[in-house]
Hints:
Blueprint: E1 3-6, H1 8-22, H2 26-42, E2 51-52, E3 59-63, E4 67-73, E5 77-85
Parallel strand pairs: 1-5
Antiparallel strand pairs: 2-3, 3-4, 4-5
Helix pairs in contact: 1-2
Amino acid sequence: MPDLVWTPAAVADLLAIIDYISDRNPDAAQQLKDDIERKALELIEYPRMYRVGRVEGTREMLVRGNYIVVYNTSPFFVQVLRVLHAAQQWPPQVKA
């Protein structure tokens, strides 16, 4: 069974989201954090369950309708790349 690996960017995303929500509702923030972490663990068993990502080689798991976990897979691991609010632009646009 593959390992679940979180990139530093994904950890920073998750902590920023939780910090923002906890200013208004600490219980909701903790519940969201628990939901995201629980669903991310399910990716180990079912990595192809969610839609193909907008960036080649990625997949996207929707959590509660507003949060997207962007990840990729290999035979050895599932790597969480980013945790984003649905209103955030993904993939980031490069300005010319």
